[in-house]
Amino acid sequence: MTALTPRRGVSPASDTPRSDTSAVRATGLRAAFRSVRAHTDALAAPLSPEDQVVQSMPDASPTKWHRAHTTWFFEQFLLEPHAPGYRLFDERLAYLYNSYYVAAGPRHARPKRGLITRPDAATVAAYRAHVDAAVDALLADEASLAPEVAAIVEIGLNHEQQHQELILTDILHAFSENPIAPAYDPEWRFRPASRAPGAVALPEGIHTIGHQGDGFSYDNEGPAHRALVGPVEIDRGLVTNGDWLAFINDGGYDDAALWLSDGFAAVQQEGWRAPGHWRQEDGRWHVVTLGGLVPVDPDAPVCHVSYYEADAFARYAGRHLPSEQEWEVAARSGELADAFGVVWQWTRSAYSPYPGFRAAEGALGEYNGKFMINQMVLRGSSLATPPGHARTTYRNFFPPSARWQFTGLRLATFPT
Amino acid sequence: MTALTPRRGVSPASDTPRSDTSAVRATGLRAAFRSVRAHTDALAAPLSPEDQVVQSMPDASPTKWHRAHTTWFFEQFLLEPHAPGYRLFDERLAYLYNSYYVAAGPRHARPKRGLITRPDAATVAAYRAHVDAAVDALLADEASLAPEVAAIVEIGLNHEQQHQELILTDILHAFSENPIAPAYDPEWRFRPASRAPGAVALPEGIHTIGHQGDGFSYDNEGPAHRALVGPVEIDRGLVTNGDWLAFINDGGYDDAALWLSDGFAAVQQEGWRAPGHWRQEDGRWHVVTLGGLVPVDPDAPVCHVSYYEADAFARYAGRHLPSEQEWEVAARSGELADAFGVVWQWTRSAYSPYPGFRAAEGALGEYNGKFMINQMVLRGSSLATPPGHARTTYRNFFPPSARWQFTGLRLATFPT
Amino acid sequence: MTALTPRRGVSPASDTPRSDTSAVRATGLRAAFRSVRAHTDALAAPLSPEDQVVQSMPDASPTKWHRAHTTWFFEQFLLEPHAPGYRLFDERLAYLYNSYYVAAGPRHARPKRGLITRPDAATVAAYRAHVDAAVDALLADEASLAPEVAAIVEIGLNHEQQHQELILTDILHAFSENPIAPAYDPEWRFRPASRAPGAVALPEGIHTIGHQGDGFSYDNEGPAHRALVGPVEIDRGLVTNGDWLAFINDGGYDDAALWLSDGFAAVQQEGWRAPGHWRQEDGRWHVVTLGGLVPVDPDAPVCHVSYYEADAFARYAGRHLPSEQEWEVAARSGELADAFGVVWQWTRSAYSPYPGFRAAEGALGEYNGKFMINQMVLRGSSLATPPGHARTTYRNFFPPSARWQFTGLRLATFPT
Amino acid sequence: MTALTPRRGVSPASDTPRSDTSAVRATGLRAAFRSVRAHTDALAAPLSPEDQVVQSMPDASPTKWHRAHTTWFFEQFLLEPHAPGYRLFDERLAYLYNSYYVAAGPRHARPKRGLITRPDAATVAAYRAHVDAAVDALLADEASLAPEVAAIVEIGLNHEQQHQELILTDILHAFSENPIAPAYDPEWRFRPASRAPGAVALPEGIHTIGHQGDGFSYDNEGPAHRALVGPVEIDRGLVTNGDWLAFINDGGYDDAALWLSDGFAAVQQEGWRAPGHWRQEDGRWHVVTLGGLVPVDPDAPVCHVSYYEADAFARYAGRHLPSEQEWEVAARSGELADAFGVVWQWTRSAYSPYPGFRAAEGALGEYNGKFMINQMVLRGSSLATPPGHARTTYRNFFPPSARWQFTGLRLATFPT
């Protein structure tokens, strides 16, 4: 089945993965629906209404918006067309909580999402409850669901999982702009890396790239196609903060020769001296995390680096970034450590359509295809990605300057 | 006594007035302090924490910021230097809630005030209570207060009253950016104009302009000086929405010949077709007010017009705007209707220092003088100005493009 | 006679003076026409076609444009309506060389004037000759000229003299942007100041401000009106480079307390450390002049300072800038040194209409009135102003950030 | 041999090709040098000094700059290090005419190249003659030239040929901004397309991509590597103006569903309604060409389209753009019509390093590698590309919004 993921205007999100298709199949759609929806509420729970209303930059969205938008998605694409007698909660919400679906009608301007103090957080909670009840009723007799309706539910759940990750990355960005650096969860700690030694060696070979089979995937993962990959060697371990501190101390941010031309322009314009969310206090590097401001741990994987920085670091190290095809083949081999669940990993591949790719018709076809320009592919998943949402063919993508996601890198070598 | 008012970075506010000096004298400083502080809380009461955190443009500030900043003012300028043993509520707040007092130390960037979700509204309420208690104690024995300390209290109260007006104008702007146009107070109605007929005729004469005597005033109201004023005739009534609708319907916004060059550039760049907060719905003009979206009342004074619009309207009408000196003399005569409490009235006077003006030394000297450029003077006061805060010598000022205050106009004629 | 001066889009020019009305009357219109036109050609003579095509910023114009635009002015306003049988040189030029006269039709975008390599300089010379011949013929029988036609000629000559000054200021700006700092005329030297000591004391008195009598003046110099001026004392001498070096060395550009808020923002954004066209070379201040790069002469009047800088300097010196009315009365007294012919002198007066001012109808009415906002008045004239073009009532005006004209200052004191 | 090409700051140019290595070998380096240098002068000959000084946008450069910069290249990289006793023509020119070689020292700001009226065109001609004489002397005894010195000459000639193409594209852009649309050469006509029917079918196969052998190539054409290409069918003919008019008339520029998200944003922001340099006059489409303004020829290949437009057109046509690898294999087959000498052809490939690519050390290593982001690859060559400068492995690249080069497209189909 081909499915489609919502991507956001300027800089699409890492929001995509699947809600563990096996789980869906094991527990049924209604149980999966309840589980995913409850997880969103759990993620928002530590945040006050004040926290939930703020938008710290055009690329980020308020928590309240994420909560309402994911709800609107079910209302717009599932309930309105497929739930007879369904009554809209409030018709004005379609305007406020549409993201970028041109075909679904006009939208509130993206950079002004932070101005919507009303409807308030309690109203959005009521909106969620209203829609949840209607979906629950629709899914009561799962066996009789039309396959295309079940497919929409599955997409909606994947869509919501993407926004679950964004809830975390976006509030972290907002908190990082606050001089007092609040903690989302004071107990939160960054997951350490495995620091697996060595590299996975891929000899030249023809491999199938992209998604096959009947599990869920996004449209940008297909068509599956054959490609020649290798020879290349890909590090099993991720680049760490310790590695990055050496880069900083060696003057990496000052040496134009290490950088792409656009990258060095970004360094100068943005004043980058370290990864995103880092601050120097008392002569030592700290980082704003979901657990608040903490000293940088040299053993943890580096995070919040842009593609420009990842590329410069690879050049500094005399290495390369892997292509997305190389990454996919290596990950599929099972020998690649920390492929999932730590940091998204920049590849050297621009985000382009696979041969013969064609976006689907209709509003849901606006998901991925129209963002296939000016962005780079990331593979794997991060600590903020919901469990079960990752797979080897998954393609995440961001502009080369983006730093507010949980983004890191691993290195590769080409045998000569 | 010379006193000084805080003005804000880009576009100083109409925040200035005096807290009814006679009231201060009658009831005493402590009673006045309690009254003004309570009024701020009353103004914020209809707003949720979500409402209070949002900043809809760099020129506006969040309600929570206004509440905290006015409190910081007493802490910084009154308690720290003059209350022995006072303990700061939280030293980080000085950074967050300083507005533009360079001499008082570094500040949080003005356009990012809307990102401060924490400290939350409850913490700011506690901050207010903490400072209120300390000031209350300081003022217990009013008779023994040093005059310069009493002067700081008086400035602080005037300062807070300015921010009371801004609380209303800024939240109105935020709500006007919300497609659903929430109401601050559903019962709120615009005050009708007196529609007084005729004009006040001022023959040529030498008058003293500026503040004299021992009541409170801001530094920009002095030095008092003599000026030749008149002959001129100033309308007793304000320009109304009905007048403005005629201007719109006559193509006023399309006729470059009516506009200052910079004004017409603003019309084109901003897409102005009507006063601020106006929206056309169902073929009829409505306006977002503190009471929500209501039809434009043709009998009410026009409001939310920029200087550019006021100037173009005067040209369209074959009339002129009065100068601030003409306005002051006319208002002093007592024959001028709606001088106070309806809308601030644009004058044709640029905001300049009076002859021999010199700003005071120290942080409180940063109030008015440094904004004497690129702004126009408004006289009178608006419906949002706290009672007792207005006087005939009061000088409000905004850039010629500002529209989010309660700003209107009256017209004048020069006899030929 | 009321007349009107062309002002330029964003930042009107110091283009102002009259073409010596007495000379016009003495020698006749045709002789004056020939003389003024020849002077423009003489000014352009040291410049190559390459020099003449370049536009160094939107506020400046190419020499070739000035030469063609002044010619277009006579063609558009004099020959087309008043010279029977006149044939346009090339109708496409009206589009290219209209400046900002909305009523005269559409115009080429101001910031793109530097892209017009063709028509080339030789064609523009031919255009000038074509128009000169037709005007010359029209003026052959001067006695029979209708007064309104003679008035247009007079305006056109004043207009061209304004552009003569701009030819010099604009090419100086272009050369100042060139790392090799070419000289317009290697022999050129800045005129030294008289360094007259003392001050002109003006006691309080009622004076008539603005132009009276039958000589030529611009519309913004009227209506003449009575005003109360003084008491004030105005320095007879101008502020010098030596004075300014002391300001620089005392940290004047770093001390926010000396500056208007907008002024300090300009200092920081533009990186101002000294007046315009100054460069530090080999540890010493130099300045790009029409004679090339030369060391700063401490005895010469300071030049190329913005209003912001003039205002900050006055505050630094514990002094004030005079108002335009004070300047006018002092200049009329004949005791004021260096009033004309050295540098334009910033006043503390915003550029506003005189009481009862009304712009004339028609395209020529677009001259001055529509620029009466966001600008400050300068009085006097500069070394680049054509002889005979200055008078005591003349009002020049520029935005407070402008530095590329020959702008300086003198100081005043208010007796206390 | 690995060689490196100069690319320009924001949007590198189509300037690259080789100066016909076979010709170099046949005639010798000195003859090739004389020939290439003479061709540059011939291209500049129809342009006046005024034409040559202008810079119409930051991405374009003045003709005079191209003439001087290519000369500086030989002085900087060939004569200074390898010609004993060579005397610089004028040391200030290194600052003015360095393009973006950070390692070669500071440079004049790119967007201000149009302000350099002096040195004048004649001086630049003298500069060229000075350098030509020195190079000529150096090449007199070609047999004894060190291979690395010969390599620098060869790079310099290729570099100059790139700028030859830019001389034409940049002056065309400048002329297109001129309302009177001057002609570079009134006799110039666009080369018609072959309109070859049918498609080249490529079955799946492993091919070597990139440059092999000992002829000249740029560093970005290697390392040569194996890739799986096909199955795909690539049209032998180019898309024509007639095809494009159908796209326009079908509302192609208004249909968001056809466009990449960034592409439609460009359409709206730039107001694109047709390819670059097109103007509607008298209800019919015309285009500014090197021969002046002419009616659009429906049989000619479409030109001056951005990648965004090419991509939207392909989607509109239900087709795809070929990848650069597909293009290279098809071109190598010899069956591809109009591969060279008409228009550069957008591919769907982002400009990325080939596997294992590593930029060379030193200033000449700044050529291509640092631009491998945010750009798309074009293949082939255009009518403005110097003869002999093209080859099948050549990679040109521009940002997806660029339209001022001679850029068109051909379409492909994936068999299903």
TrEMBL record, chains A, B, C, D:
DinB-like domain residues: 33-167
Domain Sulfatase-modifying factor enzyme-like: start-end pairs: 196-336
Pathway assigned to this chain's UniProt record: Amino-acid biosynthesis; ergothioneine biosynthesis
One Pfam entry name: FGE-sulfatase
Stretches for region Disordered: 1-23
Alphabetized Gene3D superfamilies for the sequence: paralog of FGE (formylglycine-generating enzyme) (3.90.1580.10)
Biased segments, Polar residues type: 13-23
SUPFAM superfamilies: C-type lectin-like
Lineage top rank: taxon: Bacteria
Protein's UniProt keywords contain Repeat: no
Signal peptide range in chain numbering: none
Keyword terms: Iron, Oxidoreductase
Record-level GO BP terms: ergothioneine biosynthetic process
Protein name (Swiss-Prot/TrEMBL): Sulfatase maturase
Species of origin: Rhodoplanes roseus
